[in-house]
Specification:
The chain is an all-alpha fold. It is 67% helix and 2% strand. It is globular. The two termini are 35 Å apart.
Length: 189
């Protein structure tokens, strides 16, 4: 990657790269497995019956998973009018945010070059695509876990920065109501 003069240009280039790599074909993909179809169905049922507080699947209460991911898909569906695209937008949002966070953390802890390398390594791994390109809760959980790690490290290693600590706590809470394991960044303590 060419050395850019400004930090903002470097970040913009990395985010655009993340959006291109993870978002490739987003309008053409169909829900590929049972989980994606189920989550999209729950989100669409929220939009149809207006009951966002208690998710339903085929008119039965859906209590298998916490509703945050389905709420997000339903909101993106309402905004875009394209449910098959909205299913993949949480993963795309996660990819862009995690790329920025890794770049910033590497830059703050070491230097700009390390930040770029960290972001590019994240974008070069298979696991990034196997998780973030899916319409599943795991793609959204990655966002909350990484924001929790980022906030904790900003506070513990570069702080004290109580605002970042509280952001980490909020992210962990959202991770818990996404899938239940969002508390993992608290283990840094």
């Amino acid at each position: 990657m060419p050395r850019l003069k400004t930090l903002a240009a470097e970040r913009l280039l990395l985010v655009v790269l993340a959006l291109l790599l993870v978002g490739a074909g987003i309008g053409w993909r169909q829900p590929m497995n049972v989980d994606e179809e189920r989550f999209l169905g729950v989100a669409l049922e929220m939009l149809q019956d207006g009951n966002w507080f208690i998710p339903h699947r085929a008119a039965q209460i859906y209590a298998d998973k916490p509703p945050l991911f389905m709420w997000t898909v339903a909101a993106f569906s309402a905004l875009t009018g394209l449910p098959k695209v909205a299913l993949y937008l949480p993963g795309l949002l996660s990819a862009a945010t995690i790329t920025l966070v890794l770049h910033d953390l590497g830059r703050r802890l070491w230097n700009r070059r390390v930040g770029v390398i960290a972001a590019l390594l994240f974008l070069a791994t298979y696991q990034t695509y196997s998780i973030l390109r899916t319409g599943q809760i795991d793609s959204f959980l990655c966002l909350w876990v990484m924001l929790g790690v980022y906030g904790m490290l900003r506070h513990l290693l570069l702080g004290p920065a109580w605002g970042w600590f509280y952001l980490a706590c909020v992210a962990m809470g959202l991770g818990i109501i996404s899938k239940g394991v969002g508390f993992v960044p608290a283990l840094l303590l």
